[in-house]
What does this fold into?
Amino acid sequence: MMNLIEAMHLVKLYTMGEETVHALDGVSFSVARGGYCAIVGPSGSGKSTLMNILGGLDTPTAGRLVIDGADISELDDEGLAAFRNRTLGFVFQSFNLLPRMTAVENVELPMIYAGVDPKERRQRAEEQLVRVGLGERLTHRPTQLSGGQQQRVAIARALAGKPALLLADEPTGALDTHTGKEILALFDELNAEGVTIVIVTHDHEVAAATKRTIEMRDGRIVADHMNERRSRHDANV
Amino acid sequence: MMRTSDLVASAARALRSNPMRSALTALGVIIGVASVVAMVSLGAGAQAQVERSIASLGSNLLIVVPGAPRGQGGVRGQAGGGGGWDSLTMADAEAIATQVDGVLVVAPSQRSRAQVIANGLNWNPEIQGVTPAYLTARDWEIESGRFFDETEERQARRVVVLGATVVEQLFPNVDPIGETLRINGGAFEVIGVLASKGQTGFQDQDDIVLAPLTTVKRRISGRNRRADTVSQISVKAVSESVLTQVEEDVNTLLRQRHRTRDGEDDFTVQNLSSITKTAQQTTQVFTYLLGGISAVSLLVGGIGIMNIMLVSVTERTREIGLRKALGARQADILHQFGLEAVALSVAGGIIGLLLGVLGAWLMTSLFNLPLVISPTNAILAIVFSGLVGVLFGAYPAWRAAKLDPIEALRRE
It folds into this structure.
């Protein structure tokens, strides 16, 4: 079976005045379906740029990126929007929930843009909230939820469109250690259920909770290794 | 592809989330539309009033009066051709009746003013000495009693027919038919009452006493005048289509009879339909002017919408970034913000229309004008406010749609 992500020699150039910055300088890697990996590196390493490109928010200057069989580097704006909507689930550091909407309405949001029927939408949103352990908090607003709960809503929202890939940008960055571990445990569970997950982080402890770590520096991949996995029980502690 | 119902729901949610701001933004359009609607209907009311009062003078009517036309021979009545107030005669009227084609009736009349006394009350109405044809020429109706006939006219009988205002003043609680009143000391019998025509805007048409022409000449007006002069000849054409031809023929005929040339006339033929047209044009300009001034306020309302939508886009940059990350296309964002602007302006348009109608009603009742609200104008007001929303919402919505999601998500 083909890999979910095939990145071939991705280059991203930014022009800053006279100077040209290689944010990505020939990045190639692949992630199998059902994979669970972390992309780590200090700020300026190019990991955010890579994440934006993987997420269809940005396009590479050169190179080829195939996700779920589709060549992302070829898509126009509308194609990228459809890609983000159907193939991708985003999880952000700061949750990015809409404050005036209830948990279930927030989870419904991506399905609105997919044109899903309102009844089905509501049902799927509720299923996902139950899946992340928030079955009792469907009609709470973000301000009535703790940080961990808000991130769970965001994860449910990312999962609602049945994406091929869950893309998380510092998902534990705004959470305390304990809550962060709970979120990582949830990722473990989701991965065990078959969801492919890519986490972008600068935190090596978070990276160590995944199956594989891709390390970046100065726009290149400098290391790519499988992690010695702690048991799920340990991660829960 | 986003569902329309979701688009509407999302716009409604956004507008509800800041009700005070939405209301104030819509207020700009409300005031704009309300003033356009009120001003245009006020103008239309004034126009209808002018038309109605001119029409009440009589239809297909030419009025011939002595004196040169204004703007040609200088001051009317002192024209180069000579001829003052006495230039029109009974013979002129007869000549028009017999020699001009397309004439329905010709009614010479002599105007006078005198004190009228009855029941110890006195009043100073306009007194017109007329022939029975006057009734037809001027579209008067008899409310009660009867009008005098040819015989009574010829015999200069002392009979009068009263306008509604005169009845009100002199016979407040009495049926005037058969009563007697005194004009210049002479006694006259009231034989009829005219149906009310109302104000012309310039004068009260019902403040009138009609008496036989010969009676007025012999018994009321000064006897020093030439016996056969008249102060006015009303010529009613058989139809509107021949009116202009009749006007020309009357001019030609009177010039022959008076031995004058065009430009030196000692008489003036007034064509009421051309006066109506002029008045219509004047009030139309007046309406456009009022509407135009009000449209400026609608424009200001539109700028208010643009301003608030730009603020809203800036405030919701992060939300826009998120929506894009979740799969909103540029078109979805464009529609969402565009719809918010259109919803604001159309809601403002509907409320403004209602307030405008109310304002028009208040003003027309204040100025005693007819209330004219055309459905076309009402629909136009709504459509126009919708256009204002599209026009002024387009730029902010376009800005929102074009936002870079990466930048937008980074914004605090």
Observations:
- Residues 231-237 of chain A have pLDDT under 50 and may be disordered.
- The domain at 5-236 of chain A is CATH 3.40.50.300 (Rossmann fold).
